[in-house]
Amino acid sequence: MADAAIGAVRQPHQTWSNWPTFILAVAGSAVGLGNIWKFPYITGENGGGAFVIVYLACIAIIGLPILTAEIMLGRRGRMSPVNSMIALARDANRSRYWGLLGVMMMLAAFLILSFYSVIAGWAIPYVGQALVGSFADATPDEIGGIFGGLLASPWQLLLWHTVFMALTVGVSGIGVKAGIERAVTILMPSLFIILAVLIIYNMMADASSFDKAVKFMFNPDFSKLTSEAILTAIGHAFFTLSIAGGAVFAYGSYLDSKASIGVTSVAIAGIDTLVALMAGLAIFPIVFANGLEAGSGPGLVFVTLPIAFGQMPGGQIIGTLFFVMLVFAAWTSSISMLEAIVEWLQERGLSRGKASATVAGSAWLLGLTTVLSLNLWKGFHPLGFIERFEGKTLFDLYDYLTANIMLPLGALLMAVFAGWIMTRASTEEELATSGPIYRVWYFLIRYVAPIGIGAIFIANLG
Ligand code: TRP
Predict the structure, then answer these.
(1) How far is the CA of 29 from the centre of ligand 1 (A)?
(2) Mean pLDDT of 289-307
(3) Atom of ligand 1 nearest to the CA of 35
(4) In terms of CB atoms within 10 Å, which of 236, 292, 411, 445 comes out highest?
(5) Residue 379 in contact with residue 392, Cβ under 8 Å?
(6) pTM here?
(7) Is residue 1 situated within a structural domain?
(8) Domain range holding 57?
């Protein structure tokens, strides 16, 4: 009877070798282009310190509790997001339609993967360019030309998008233990070491620029904070923690029942935040040392940094390391974006290899529309008749739909499900605590997260 009241305990179809590997895998999902490419440039665009503080607060107050909820739902459901949500709703005697939340999360991951692979692909030729010294003594215009040339060429973009997707499916197709675990245990420590090398290099090469970067990132000037910056910070908190894309959900469904979800979530959010801040300390000192613009936008990593690599001693090595790191970070994330749908297809009887290839192949195909959005279809604005979407290419629309709608909506619904639909007894059981920390989580997930996210929606619509 007790079981019926709090829901069934299900068995996973497979499990991670151990708990630290799980943490590394989810951290690998979380740490990606979001940390190394996007976080520095949005910090630069939004004026530094004050934005960083708001971002940290969003991670702690909204991101972390929802990350905990997503891992919890995955582990309790023990299946792909859609089948888990159906099972969990049944446990709580609620509608099967909760399964649609699982479907939306899987779709979000699929859409993100389709363009993520194109952007991650940009970094691959940069490894080669940095290595052979293409940036050495090049003028800013010439380096801007390299980037512009890449984006203007559908064939080059297609090539690197294809290579990146092949890397992704190569790991995913082998399986959770032989593929994903092995990849993250090699790639994540390498990424961390490269990042540390870059930071130490910056400290030694030019202490005053390093100082300037630290002040820029950590001395808040709240007069620079706009309401748009706050929205950007919340949206990015979801993206960077891989929330509501089903990746964390699927990884959680393979987690051992004894592992503490609370400790796990804190570790993952901690690693993700640390890497974002470290990326800032790897990038901004170089920007300041060379008198470049911190607010230069998406080109920060692909144009601004190479200018600096081209001028500094050892820039060839430092630059190469940097882009290798970027590819590694994106790779462990893209692998995770496949997982929810792969898990679902496996539940439907497909083999692992076939499932990975099907999902990656379809995402690759859709990715072609992002490739074209950057050049031949630049002027194609399918929703241009709506004011809000004026001038937005297909790629811009995928980005908007996922970051501004699907991820926050998924996060909101997960918070409602964990806080209001599941019984308190079942969340207490799954999180293995009912103490003060549980009560803080329960309060955040029931009130703070839904109200916070609801507010973003309203602000976004207004
Ligand atoms: N968190 C990753 C990054 O910062 C992106 C990512 C991976 C993601 N998996 C996701 C985003 C699932 C949303 C949903 O680059």
Answers:
(1) 6
(2) 88
(3) 4
(4) 411
(5) no
(6) 0.94
(7) no
(8) 15-220+230-461
Q: Residue 101 belongs to a domain with what CATH number? A: 1.10.4160
The preferred substitution site among 337, 342, 399 for testing ligand 1, maximizing ligand atoms within 8 Å of CB, is 337
For the Cβ of 30 lying below 6 angstroms from any atom of ligand 1, the answer is yes
Task: Give residue 307's pLDDT band: very low, low, confident or very high (50, 70, 90).
Answer: confident
What pLDDT, in 10s, does the model give residues 34-74? 999 999 999 999 999 999 999 999 999 999 999 999 999 99
CA of 30 to the centre of ligand 1 (A): 6
User: Using a 6 Å cutoff on CB, does residue 117 contact ligand 1?
Assistant: no
Residue 3 lies in a domain: no
Task: Kindly report the protein residue whose alpha carbon is nearest to atom 8 of ligand 1.
Answer: 242
Instruction: Report the number of distinct structural domains present in the chain.
Output: 1
Q: Which residue puts its alpha carbon closest to atom 5 of ligand 1?
A: 242
Calculate how far, in angstroms, residue 248's C-alpha sits from the geometric centre of ligand 1.
9
pLDDT of residue 7: 67
Decide whether any atom of ligand 1 lies within 6 Å of the 29 Cβ. yes
* Rg, the chain, Cα only: 22
Measured from the CB, is residue 167 less than 6 Å from ligand 1? no
What is the whole-number distance in angstroms between the Cα of residue 118 and the centre of ligand 1? Answer: 14
Q: Is residue 129 part of a domain?
A: yes
Q: Does residue 34 line the site of ligand 1, with CB under 6 A?
A: yes
pLDDT digits (tens, 9 = 90+) for 337-370: 999 999 999 999 999 999 999 999 999 999 999 9
- Decide whether any atom of ligand 1 lies within 6 Å of the 336 Cβ: yes
In a domain? residue 303: yes
Max mean pLDDT among 9-13, 200-204, 248-252, 307-311 falls in 248-252
Instruction: For residue 68, give Cα distances in angstroms to 6, 117, 411, 444.
Output: 19, 27, 11, 11
User: Nearest C-alpha to atom 6 of ligand 1 is from which residue?
Assistant: 242
pLDDT tens digit string along 1-14? 344 446 667 877 78
Residue nearest to atom 13 of ligand 1 (CA): 242
